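INTERNAL AUDIT FORM
Audit reference: QA-55
Scope: verify that the stored structure record matches its stored sequence.
Auditor: D.O.
Record contents follow.
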Amino acid sequence: MERVTTALSYFFAALLAWFGGLTPEYKALLVGAAIGVGTFLVNWYYRRKSYVLLARHGLCRGAYEEHHR
């Protein structure tokens, strides 16, 4: 277990050292990109969940999309 925690400590130390050396503009780019990808994944997850719920109740995806335009 000690080897794992030591490896994680070194990994996070190196990651934080790398992140600390970045310019503020590049940090903003990385944070913005991460938020964009996160938003896409959350929307995809809940849209898929809605389609599964519709299919479970016998409604088709096309009818749902046509109604919500």
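Auditor finding: record pair retrieved intact. Residues 63 and 69 are 10 Å apart (CA to CA).
Action required: none
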